[in-house]
Specification:
Layout: E1 10-17, E2 26-34, H1 36-46, E3 55-59, E4 65-68, E5 86-90, E6 93-101, E7 114-120, H2 133-142, H3 151-180, H4 187-248, H5 252-257, H6 265-281, E8 285-292, E9 297-300, H7 319-322, E10 332-333, E11 337-339, E12 345-347, E13 349-355, E14 366-374, H8 376-387, E15 401-405, E16 411-414, E17 441-448, E18 451-459, E19 477-483
Antiparallel strand pairs: 1-2, 3-4, 3-7, 5-6, 6-7, 8-9, 8-14, 10-13, 11-12, 13-14, 15-16, 15-19, 17-18, 18-19
């Protein structure tokens, strides 16, 4: 009823209470309406399915379609969630389908989302045509030793060679036997059988090659998609960090108390209490802190960082720039540098200025700022690990690893199996791989650290207004290594 002109709406609501104490009087309700349709269209487009026959959909836990890239599907359509690949027929067309269940994020599982992909059966094996010729040529060379191919596929290749060799031997023995028996009339028959054998071997070899190319093309496409997904998740996640600091800078208590020349102990404790309460809800942060117009830190959310109180913000934190920002829509971010505010580890610190309540309008009187220390070490690693290719048991493919790096190869985050760690530099012979344009991606096969990998690279493009409006420049690339 709150959105009468929309067939489907997704909104989140929470009661507004007089204070944060349990049982506090309810004053009202805040509702946030989420633009799910816009968001899903953006996601489908980003997944390169606009020109594909692949049907993607987001469904609820009972299988009802919430959103799909195929508008011709009736809204009443529903699918019983099945987490195993299956073949289904709809309207006379057979589809290979796969369904996955949400893993949730930070303990939030939405409506128990499921994602479903359906590809027409006759289109399922055409992707090999998109593979570079060099990769097609390498497919047969990779087959015997590559982990990309299953044992069953390797055995087909091996068995076909055995059958062909056995058939050649039988024909040769037949020719020898015919010669000994002076039965020359059988030789033309055997020659014809040999021709048929050669044709059959060629057809079989081409079919196997095509199947191998399809498998390799699938991995090349898959590793590119993984890289795109990883960097997209990073952009979306950091977009929220830019929002949080600006949002919290508008807190009335902050704007009232920081406007005072001096704060007593009770007022400082009040600031710390608000920060701590917020940090408990937003666990992606290591610490939140407030500083006045001179850069003096007044309060922190993390008791373990209480040593910061009374000190002045350092130049690497982004706070100095923040104190010159009077527009509440703007923010400042530190470089990815080692900081004592993150126990001498590298991270990003997002900042927003706090303005006086006495000044209204876009430009306010700056009386301080808020700094939020992103707990990037586990957060970035989780983003990467969650997106890495998995085997049939749901575990990351052995030897596969992912990285977040800057344009010059400086490593921001790395996962298990990575030979290069945070703070080190990724060195590639193909240096141009890190020059890929923002929002673009590529995939190739290369040798790194004396091992052969399929690699996917994708450069960040920002999200909504974040890093797309000149507000902030920070190129990050996701690099995914899949051992061959």
């Amino acid at each position: 009823d709150l959105k009468p002109n929309q067939e489907k709406s997704l909104f989140y609501s929470c009661k507004i209470t007089e204070n944060s104490n349990k049982g506090s009087r309810v004053l009202g309700v805040l509702c946030l309406f989420f633009k799910l349709k816009d968001e899903m269209e953006s996601i489908f487009k980003h997944l390169h399915v606009s020109d594909s026959k692949n049907i993607l959909m987001l469904t609820s836990s009972d299988g009802k379609i919430i959103s799909s890239n195929q508008r011709s599907l009736p809204s009443s359509f529903s699918f019983k969630p099945n987490l195993h690949p299956e073949l289904v027929t709809i309207g006379g067309t057979s589809y290979i389908t796969i369904t996955v269940k949400t893993k949730g994020y930070q303990g939030f599982y939405g409506l128990g989302w499921y994602a479903r992909s359906m590809l027409p059966l006759h289109d399922a094996f055409s992707s090999y045509d998109l593979m570079p010729e060099s990769s097609q040529e390498n497919a047969s060379e990779l087959l015997p030793s590559s982990s990309l191919f299953s044992d069953a596929l390797k055995q087909i290749h091996h068995n076909s060679q055995d059958v062909n060799e056995d058939l050649k031997l039988i024909i040769l023995n037949g020719i020898i036997t015919a010669a000994r028996a002076q039965a020359a009339e059988f030789v033309p028959v055997l020659e014809e059988i040999k021709k048929i054998s050669d044709i059959t071997a060629t057809v079989f070899s081409e079919s196997i090659q095509r199947l191998q190319n399809t498998v390799l093309s699938s991995w090349l496409t898959g590793v590119r998609t993984v890289a795109e997904l990883a960097v997209d998740i990073m952009d979306r996640n950091l977009y929220e960090r830019a929002n949080d600091c600006r949002w919290w800078a508008l807190t009335t208590s902050f704007r009232q108390l920081l406007n005072k020349e001096m704060l007593n102990k009770e007022e400082q404790n009040s600031l710390s209490s608000i920060l701590a309460y917020t940090n408990q809800l937003y666990t992606v942060y290591f610490n939140l802190y407030l500083y006045d117009s001179k850069g003096k830190i007044l309060a922190v959310s993390n008791p373990g960082q209480s040593w910061m109180v009374g000190t002045y913000v350092n130049d690497e934190s982004g706070a100095r720039e923040t104190l010159h920002i009077s527009d509440s829509q703007k923010y400042a971010v530190s470089a990815f540098v080692t900081t004592p505010y993150y126990q001498n580890r590298p991270t990003y610190i997002y900042n927003a200025s706090i303005t006086s309540l006495d000044h209204s309008g876009a430009d306010g009187h700056v009386i301080g700022g808020i700094g939020i220390v992103f707990d990037c070490e586990p957060q970035f690693e989780n983003m990467l690990t969650d997106t890495l290719p998995k085997n049939e048991h749901g575990h990351v493919v052995e030897g596969c690893f992912g990285l977040f790096v800057t344009r010059d190869g400086f490593v921001i985050s790395s996962t298990e199996y990575s030979p290069v760690q945070v703070g080190e530099t990724l060195t590639l012979n193909e240096k141009s791989l890190l020059d890929v344009d923002n929002g673009k991606s590529l995939t190739c096969s290369l040798t790194y650290n004396k091992k052969q990998y399929v690699i996917g690279v994708s450069a960040s493009k920002g999200y909504r207004e974040y890093k797309t409006t000149g507000d902030y420049r920070n190129d990050v690339l996701a690099v995914i290594f899949l051992p061959q």
